Design the sequence.
């Protein structure tokens, strides 16, 4: 009996990353496999089309998309910075209120933007072209400049609005190809699934402890769910949503209003899929009071490279994010019932573990 | 013999009521059965097929997470598809964990609320 206990103890000491129970194993496996299978977007006839992808890639870097021929998508979405810009908030012709979102793993999502104002990648790609603070161009202007390139891929457009949408669809077709590569976490997850002890041992011990916090006591995975580490929905984690003394960022509340008012949503004439197979979320989305100040649950894939964090870029590092959750101010959350988010009161070592884990995604 | 056993096992796995296939829900003698199509998963928009017994009418539906105090982010719509048969479109479980279905039914003059607990794991 004593011998057995000693043997077990020895085993435990030999594996400081500690034993994995069945529930934890299942919770970890849910975050893969990676990468996901790429499926074309039925609402975009350019999706998956090589000629459209090549056009979209060129246009993403092309200043002819801006009114004053002085900036492009890539002025804010920098290839060397994971297609974000490293600033707290975007800077266009005028300053923006929100953090520039890194572009990756964009295919097959329900919602785009921090407030989910777009139900397709092409609709989201159209916004900055016409937004007065960003590229400030128009369909008419683009048609004057880009007709030849456009027509070579799409054929002639019936009107300027269709022309604009086509350009956005080419941009979307290219952006769909941006996928974060397999990570150290993916190797660990697959080794765990396969029961490959050597593969599992290659994963850093601190990251492994952080992973336990993430799927366990931290309850992070209730929102940062699945292979992309996001449930694709919206929530509030107590980040300020007031803009100066009298402004407010309505977040998801404004996003739903903008979505439903947009001629470019999936219920409109620009959806290339007559069966409207991807439009159900738009048909059913509910505008709720609690949507005030809610923002999209961001994917955490590649998160190490996309500082600063949160919709307003207010947290500079992943350690600051971990501290934010550790000491979260419940008075700032307008949820009822038992909250998912509770101050975790993490030690400095636990914060370091959580960061070590996030850096492996 | 083997076939009979297999059939019995199949029946036990999805206990069928006289009024239709699916998971039975009942209270005070009122009964319905529901099925989720396609299989429930976090972040997947699904439909709930409901079969009611004894001319019971389905008048309302909701899904919520009692421990988190929130419901759906989407507004499901009920459509009658036949006598005692309904299809509810637009249900999306956005978090794993315990959920509860709420069915508001009418039998003649009386309305009644039936609830069913379910757990969404993945």
Sequence:
């Amino acid at each position: 009996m004593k011998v057995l206990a000693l043997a077990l103890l020895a085993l435990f000491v030999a594996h400081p990353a500690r034993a994995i129970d069945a529930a934890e194993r299942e919770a970890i496996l849910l975050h893969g496999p990676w990468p996901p299978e790429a499926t074309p977007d039925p609402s975009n006839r350019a999706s998956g089309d090589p000629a459209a992808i090549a056009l979209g890639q060129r246009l993403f870097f092309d200043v002819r998309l801006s009114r004053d021929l002085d900036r492009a998508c890539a002025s804010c979405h920098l290839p060397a910075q994971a297609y974000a810009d490293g600033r707290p908030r975007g800077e266009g012709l005028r300053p923006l209120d929100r953090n520039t979102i890194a572009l990756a793993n964009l295919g097959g999502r329900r919602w785009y933007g921090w407030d989910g104002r777009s139900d397709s990648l092409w609709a989201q790609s159209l916004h900055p072209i016409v937004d007065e603070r960003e590229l400030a161009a128009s369909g008419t202007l683009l048609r004057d400049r880009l007709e030849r390139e456009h027509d070579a891929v799409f054929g002639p457009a019936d009107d300027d609005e269709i022309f604009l949408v086509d350009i956005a669809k080419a941009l979307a077709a290219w952006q769909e190809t941006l996928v974060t590569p397999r990570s150290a976490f993916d190797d660990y997850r697959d080794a765990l699934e396969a029961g490959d002890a050597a593969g599992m041992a290659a994963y850093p011990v601190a990251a492994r402890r952080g992973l336990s916090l993430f799927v366990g006591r931290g309850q992070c995975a209730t929102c940062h769910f699945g292979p992309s580490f996001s449930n694709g929905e919206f929530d509030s984690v107590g980040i300020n949503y007031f803009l100066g003394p009298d402004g407010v960022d309505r977040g998801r509340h404004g996003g739903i209003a903008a979505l439903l008012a947009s001629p470019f949503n999936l219920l409109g004439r620009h959806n290339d899929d007559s069966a409207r197979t991807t439009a159900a979320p738009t048909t059913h989305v509910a505008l709720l009071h609690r949507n005030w100040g809610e923002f999209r649950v961001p994917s955490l894939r590649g998160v190490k490279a996309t500082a600063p964090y949160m919709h307003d870029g207010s947290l500079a590092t992943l350690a600051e994010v971990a501290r934010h959750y550790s000491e979260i101010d419940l008075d700032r959350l307008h949820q009822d019932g038992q909250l998912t988010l509770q101050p975790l009161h993490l030690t400095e070592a636990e914060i370091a573990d959580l960061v070590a884990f996030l850096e492996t995604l | 013999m083997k076939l009979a056993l297999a059939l019995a096992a199949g029946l036990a796995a999805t206990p069928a009521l006289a009024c239709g296939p699916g998971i039975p829900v009942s209270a005070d003698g009122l009964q319905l059965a529901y099925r989720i199509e396609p299989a429930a998963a976090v972040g997947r928009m699904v439909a709930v097929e409901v079969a009611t017994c004894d001319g019971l009418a389905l008048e309302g539906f909701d899904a919520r997470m009692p421990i988190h105090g929130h419901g759906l982010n989407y507004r499901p719509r009920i459509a009658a598809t036949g006598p005692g048969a309904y299809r509810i479109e637009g249900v999306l479980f956005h978090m794993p964990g315990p959920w509860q279905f709420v069915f508001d039914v009418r039998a003649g003059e009386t309305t009644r609320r039936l609830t069913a607990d379910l757990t969404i794991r993945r």
In short: Residues 8-17 of chain A have pLDDT under 50 and may be disordered. Strands of chain A lie at 234-235, 242-243, 247-248, 295-296. DSSP finds 14 helices and four strands in chain A. Chain A touches chain B at residues 26, 30, 110, 221-223, 225-226, 231-234, 280-281, 283-286, 288, 290, 335-340 (CB under 8 Å).
